[in-house]
What does this fold into?
Amino acid sequence: MKKILSLTIVSALLFAISACRDESLNPLPTFLPGVHAFTVFDGIAFNGNLLARPQPYEVDNAKTFPKAAQNSAKIDFKTRWVSLDNKLTVNKIEIYVRMLESYNDPDGNPKVADLSGNGKGKLIATISAPAANRQWNAFSITPQQIYDAYKTATVKYDKVNSVNVFSNPARPRPTNAWLRPAETATYGAVASDSFVLTWILYTTDGQVFNTWNPDSICADPTSVSEANSNCQLAFSVK
It folds into this structure.
């Protein structure tokens, strides 16, 4: 009887403790469903090694814009969204591009101007009806699109006066060669214009998934699979 009584008391105490537990103080987070994307340069073959990351098609500058005849140039990409638990559906993907210009300030110091002004880039393309989970969506980006998005951008090259990037006499940008490669000229050696491609995912239940912490899913080190992820790609002019 004593043993039964002791067990009854212990059970009652445990029940009381459990019933009074404040879930807001639980250190273990509640994980909600999410989605991520994987975007690559289209037209670059898989090398056949399932363990090799990064693959040639996901390396920065795997494709670049040409120096001339940019009115007929393009870079092809493909992207896919991934829901690991199949609980969310993406119904729109927005593609953004940041444009970075290298220059030298009046003191000869190398500088890089983010022409987007906000670090997020300009909206370049929208995939309004993306394919199903883990299926590829093809799209292209042209120099003309980037020029149209950034043609009013200005930079204070002398730290005082704002100068239109595409009308800067120190670095001519003629039609069909708006985007400049690395150069050595009277204004000093500068790197090529560079571009950073990012994306935003929208789901049918109204959620928005933007770029994640670079230390998390953006730096996906896993072997090649249908669940791979990244958060940006970079390309330039060569």
